[in-house]
Every structure is written in C-alpha cells, then in structure tokens.
Amino acid sequence: MTGIHQFKIKGISGDEIDFASFAGKKILVVNVASECGYTRQYQQLEELYEEFQDRLVVVGFPCNDFGGQEPGSDAEIRSFCTLNFGVKFPLTTKISIVKTPVHPIYQWLTQKAENGVLDSTVKWNFHKYLLDEKGHLVAHHPSAVSPVDEVVLDWAQA
C-alpha cells in the first residue's frame, strides 16, 4: 500500500512541501477556507499543531470548491491566516479537491483504490484526514468535528 509520503506539493509561500519529510509523524490533512463558518477552526488547528508538533503535523489545503469561500490569492490567504490566527503549520498553494482537475493528493485520500483503506467524499471546507506515522490513511472526519474534539485528540496522543 502506498502512503501520502509519496507526494510533494507547492507550499503557499512558494516552497515545496515534501510529505516524505513527515515520516515518523502523524499527519492531519484539512481543506481550509477563509470565508467559511468553520474558519475559526484555524485557531484550533494551530493549537493542535503547537501542542503535538513533536509527533504531529497539520497541513492545510486552501480550496475554493465549496461556496466560493476561499477566493483570495495565495499571498492573501497566507496573510489572513497569519494575522488572524497566527498559523505556523504548513499551508499549500490553493488547489481543487472536488472540481476538475482534482489534485492527486485528494484523489489518493478519497479513493480506496488509491489509499487501500476507504472511499470518502469531501462535502465542505475543514474536512479532516488522519494519517499515521507511516503515511497511511487511518480515518476521516467531516467539518463539524472540531480539530480539538476527543476523537482527534485521542488519535494525536496515541
């Protein structure tokens, strides 16, 4: 079974995010948006990242696929996240996750034929994917599940 460690993506600042560099850490992948009712989850994601950064990395994927709630440029998104939520966890360049062309990472995350674990559908912003230290998909949770919900904290601490 392949894992997420096979992927690289452009970061929001123009750097490269190589998922292989996260080997040995759990990964929380989340699609994010600046004008969503769940946008306050940025703060919780940052708190989770800061508390567990020795064993967990949060990677945010800005996406405008749901309700046009991430209309900004990469520079605008980065500024918004830094100024309003003090985000230090990695953010990627803005991608598409349900509209064509779907980014390969989200093809892998949502298709059992790719990830070997489960099929899933992202229905809104702030959908969370949990991956283990080997980069294998463990679970996913919809937007309404907070990044500091017991189910996420239990996974992060295990």
What does this structure look like?
The chain has 158 residues and is an alpha+beta fold. It has five helices and six strands, in the order βββαβαααββα. The protein has helices spanning 41-52, 74-85, 104-110, 112-115, 150-157; strands at 8-10, 16-18, 26-32, 56-62, 128-131, 137-141. A four-stranded mixed sheet has the order 4-3-5-6, with helices on one face. A two-stranded antiparallel ribbon has the order 1-2. The protein is globular and about 35 Å long. The two termini are 22 Å apart.
pLDDT averaged residue by residue: 97
**CATH homologous superfamily identity:** Glutaredoxin
Structural class: alpha+beta
Work out the radius of gyration: 14 Å
Shape: globular
Helix content: 25-40%
In CATH's first tier, which class applies?
Alpha Beta
Helices, by number, come to 5
**What series of H and E elements makes up the topology?**
EEEHEHHHEEH
What is the β-strand count?
6
Largest sheet: 4 strands, mixed
How many domains make up the coordinates?
A: 1
- Order of the strands making up the biggest sheet: 4-3-5-6
The CATH architecture can be named as: 3-Layer(aba) Sandwich
Beta content:
15-25%
Low-confidence runs = none
Remind me, CATH topology? Glutaredoxin
Intertermini distance: 22 Å
